[in-house]
Every structure is written in structure tokens, then in C-alpha cells.
Amino acid sequence: MTTVQDWPGRLGLWHVGVPPSGPMDDRSFRAGNLVLGNDEGAAGLECTLSGPQLRFTTPSAICVCGAQAPVALDGEEIPQWTAVDVAAGSTLQVGKAAGLGLRVYVLFAGGLAVPPYLGSAATFTLGRFGGHHGRALRRGDVLALSEPTGTPLREVTDSPELTHDWALAVTEGPHAAPDFFTEADIDQLYAARWEVHFNSARTGVRLVGPKPRWARADGGEAGLHPSNIHDTPYGIGAIDFTGDVPIILGPDGPSLGGFVCPATVITAERWKLGQLRPGDTVRFCPVAPEDVRAPPRFRAPAVRDNGVLARRQERADAPQVTYRRSGDDNLLVEYGPMTLDLDLRMRVHALSERVAREHRDGLIDLTPGVRSLQLHVDPDRLTVAQALELVQAIEAELPPAQDLVVPSRTVSLPLCWDDPSTREATRRYMAGVRADAPWCPWNIEFIRRINGLESVDEVRRIVFEAEYLVLGLGDVYLGAPVATPVDPRHRLVTTKYNPARTWTPENAVGIGGAYLCVYGMEGPGGYQFVGRTIPVWRRGDEDPPWLLAPFDRIRWYPVSAEQLTRLREDPAAAAESVSIAPGRFALAAHESFLNRHGREIAAFASRQSEAFAAERARWGAAGELAVAVP
Known about the structure:
By secondary structure, the protein is α+β, with helices and mostly antiparallel strands. The chain is built from eleven helices and 35 strands. It folds into three domains: 1-161, no CATH class; 165-400, Cyclophilin; 407-595, Beta Barrel (Cyclophilin). It starts with a strand and ends in a 9-residue tail after the last helix.
């Protein structure tokens, strides 16, 4: 597969589930551009496993770098990592990366002339945008070149060292031991040689190795597995435990999710993710945060700190705050205990608004989660330590969450209940991943059972009666909402797939933990299906392309599979199927509602808790659960 990429990619849209994309091995890509005298981020080609044959209609110069592969110009072998002049009419052939490394990069003097989408020429194939028509290159495609402007270096003197046995420098956090993993789990994480799984991609590198024992019995409201947490922002390079399986998140990875990440690959070594081949081995080497910019031989071993940088104790008018490290380019701010509490989400909103008004140089993204806010920084301009000082100073000035009122539209959307595509996804999962999972063969029956409901009709009634408050966008991708019912009596609780699905239909609707999400595009997934809806990412001329906003309230109305198919095939009809009414959400009014209905809410939660415990006991008897250390 060959795609157009540029560096650093599509920044500033992490909060709506748009990944940066860009070259997975940015070190090779940037070096090749500098050889040609380009800006280091100029658009070029990324070739995964094997490359293209290119015929030039104008003279140019190229540099091929990255993985080891045979490269020929007009049938004559040419070297990698050096500038080579190309005459008009010449043909370049990039062969298969059969030795060390997985991705080859082809850079051109001046760079490729590709129109940007959302600020970048990088291709995001899963989202079908960027690059050349949002897809991998095909035979007959024509790419234009920009005029060269810089002074070429002609060759690279320090090309990266490739291997089959990789060492990746990591910093601890955001979620390590003893809160989520045991100390023995973290020892194991660093001691093991992890094997790269064949089912790896630009979204993330899946690893095979020992299972953790975990420090918790389960994820509580977030899910039955101890890897489950309330949806939180992710960082690129985070080691994301989706159940018992670790995945190192790549440049096309998700911005938001409900799994713990005990450590994060540092920015200087993320280029290695692009060259990991199936069957290669990986060791994680913890380093001191202050040494992440130092050459490897000068890095000191890390001191265990769970990734926790500071804590602020609970006060009468404000919850506890935990400040967590997520690599050397992200700070994660978490409020309160590990519970679903809209008071905490309102606090996150207040902090995000206040930080945004600072317009601090080096701040790239502000991404909210259910009870957290992630500050993504350029560490060359704003360090994590400086970001920590900023948010700590702002925290002292925030008003009580009870005083906050936010815009909150009611958005009515069509939902095809138990859509055939979701049944197909479950069948594929059973055939290719796991046939004996407790949630198979029918996710809706599993939701009924784990919530103690009498029938699946009760599940349907609750979903269609509920108002789902949007707490974040981008789970999973492209403006997709993570939402929870405003009324706790509508909060169905489930656990997530373990291991995750490898395929989920675009715009499938599922429940995981106490949250509902709409999948913004095809891809992996773990939420239990209830149906499918229309796209929440608009591909026409709408600005912005995402339909929803935080604190919107989603209401579903039923449509048949045939009706949904027609809506999905006709963007104009899909747009007409959405109705939006203005409104607002006031935390004080919501808490008054909770007080008035406290008895019924408690009764619903008690029945749900009993069913959840019974399901957990069945899992334990079947050997489904990891052994947790009290």
C-alpha cells in the first residue's frame, strides 16, 4: 500500500477524533526531505511492505529511505538515503521490503503538490480523506510535483538503525501501578520480549506476550474487565491494553477510549513504530522524563512514579485532581474518583475553556474525556512540566461546577435497531476471533442479562426513551460521540469485547461501560451493538464536518434497515432526517432532578448491580476473569 503523507500531519483536531496521520516513521521521512532541500514535512509517499512503479513526465530528484528494499531507476539499482536525479521519461521501481523494516519512503524535490484537507495533505485511509482522493494509490494515478526551493544536502550521514529486536524508550503513565496494574505487571511489561502481531497497522501495533494479573477486580461502571476505565483521551505512542492485549497507538489511532495505558513511547522513538514487522520483538525501556531528549546511551533509568506528577486534594467546592504524564508530549488532568459524575465533566469543560483562552504557544490540542482533559504539547515549545504549572494555577481560579450552564442542543437521529450489519460483525468475530465470548451470539441479549432486565424489549425501550448527553467526540473517530443517559435509570452498563473486534461497520451504535458511542468509520471496536445510524461526519461542504458538539443530547427514533440504507445512500435525505432544537444544560437543575428521583434511581442501580455481580460470578467460574490482587 502506498499513500501520500506529510509531516506533522493534521494537528489540532484530536478533540473531534481526527488523528494526525502523517508518516509512521517520521525520522526517515523528514531526513529524506532534508536531503532534497525540502521543508522536512513536504508531502511524499509512504510505501508499506512494497512500493510502486512511478514514471516521471518531468525531470526531478528523489530520495528513497526507510526500510531496506530494492530500488531501481530505469532498471539500474540506485542507493537509498541519497539524492538521485531523475530524467523525464524515467521509471522508478520500489520493490518489497523483505529485510529489516516495513515502510519505505519516496521523497521528491519540492514535494508532492497535493491540496490540503483540514490543514494537511496526509492520507487517512480509514476516514477516506487527505492525500490522493483519500485512498491508497492505484495504477494510473497522476501526482503533481511542486517546484524545488531549497538547497539539497544530497545524502544522509546518520540513517536510523533497523533491527528485528527493538528497544523502545517509554515514560511511565498515564495509568500504571499500583492503581491499575500490579507492580509485578509493570516489571513484566519491561522485562518481556513482546512479539509484533500480524494484525498491526497504522492505527496501532498489536503485541503478543504475557497477560497482566491486574490490581483491580474489574472496571466498575466502566466495564467488567479491569482494563476498562471511563473514556479518556489517548496519546500517540501509548501502550493501550484493550483487555489483556497491548496495542501501541499509531498516528492513525483513536483519540479517545476506555482502556488503560501504563506507559507511552517517547516522541524521539515513535519513528520505530513504522518499521516494526510482524514477528519482530519489542522491549520497553523506561527512561527518566528529563532524559527523553538525550541520546539513548545517556538516558538514566526511570524512577517508578505511576506516571503521577502531582495531586490536589478534594475541597469543599472542588474535587480531587490527579495530574498524569502521558509521554513527553501530553499531560492528562483527571478529576475525582473513578466514577461517572456529570459534575466532573462540567469541571473538565471549565478547565478546557479557561486553558484555551490562554492561547499558550506550544499547546497543540485540548481533548476532553468523561472526567479528564488532555493537553497535547509540542515539548520543544511547551514542556509537560510547564503545562502542569499552567493548569495548577488555573485550577485555583475555577468556579464551582454547580454554577455552570452550557449550551445543550437536542439532536434527534434515526436508529436501526439490531441492524443486520452489526449481526454480521458479530458473526465475523465469532468466526475469526472468539466464538465462546459471553456476549455472543447476540450483544443485545448480553446487555439484557448483565443489566437484570426481563426482556430484550426492555433494552429497546430504554435506548429509545433515553436522552444521551454527549461527553466527548472521537470515540470512535471522526466526530463520533461518547454519551451517557441524562437520567441514571436509562444507564445500561455493559463490558467491552475482550479481545476487541477487528471489524465494526461504519456508524454502528454500541454500549460499553455506561456509555453509548457511534463508530465514525469502519475499524476495530469493543462496544456491545444495539444498532446503526447515519453518518455523524459530513462529507459535503459543511463547515465543520462534524455534526455533534459536547453536551448535545441525542434522542433516537426507530427506522427499518431498508429506510436506513436509503438514508445512508442519500446525503440530502440523511441531513433531512436530523432535527436539532436549541437548549442548555445546567448542573444545578440536573442535581435537583437526581434528588427528586433518588429512590427510583437507587432501585434501578441495585437491580443492575446484582445482575452485574451475577454475570461476574459466571465469568469467574468459567475462567474468564484475570486473577486480581486485592
